[in-house]
Amino acid sequence: MQHEKPELMELGLESMNALTIVLLDEHQDKVNPFYVHFYTRIITETLRVLTDYRHMSGFKLQATIFQNLIQLVHTSQGLIKEPILDASEQAHSLPSNKDFAMQLIKSLLCEMFPNLN
Asked: Fewest beta carbons less than 10 Å away: which of 16, 31, 39, 81?
């Protein structure tokens, strides 16, 4: 997703988007184990390219992926049943994955835009 060449960046975005769709549509049994391990990394990298001015050409697809990631934890039941692992590969201790995702997004935005603190 993060690449200087627009065609490679676009390929990475399309692949990530296709992966999320295929997981939800055809492999429901693999959604939980996949996102428990990779949710933090995917949302971090997606937010980094989403806020990087050099990657504006893929904005629509970046926003779609980011929206899909938020929807995975936003519903009352949530599609990810087990606690998501944080950057240090430890399960979070917050009440829900939704709380963890919102805290993660908040901390990433504060890190990327220190003048917002």
From this structure: 81
